[in-house]
Amino acid sequence: MARLTPENEVLARTIIGRYPVPKSALIPLLHLAQEQDGWVTDEAMAHIAELVGVSAAEVLGTCSFYEMFKREPVGRYLVNICTNISCVLMGSDDLLSHAEQRLGVTVGETTPDGTFTLEGVECIAACTEAPCLQVNYRYRYKVTPESFDELVDDLAAGAFADEIPPHGTLARVRQVIAADRVAGAVEPTDGRQPEWMGDPDGGAS
Amino acid sequence: MTVSDVAPIITSRFANPDAHTLSGYRATGGYQALAKALSMSPEAVANEVKEASLLGRGGAGFPAGVKWGFCPPGVWPRYLVVNGDESEPGTYKDRMLMERDPHQLIEGVLLACYAVGCGQAFLYVRGEMALAQERIAAALNEAYAAGLVGRNIMGSDFSVDVILHWGAGAYIVGEETALIESLEGERGMPRLKPPFFPAAKGLYMQPTIVNNVETLSNVPWIVNNGAAAYNELGAEASRGTRMFAVSGHVKNPGVFEVEFGTTTFRDIIFDPRYAGGILGDRAVKAFIPGGASAPWFFEEHLDLPLEKGTVDRAGSMLGSGAIVVMDETTDVVRACLSLVRFFAHESCGKCTPCREGTTWLERILTRIISGQGRPTDLDLLLDVSDNISPGIAWPPKQTTICPLGPSAVSPISSALTRFRGEFEALIDDAVAARTAVTPVEITVGSHG
Question: Domain map of chain A by residue range?
Answer without folding.
Answer: 6-63, 77-156
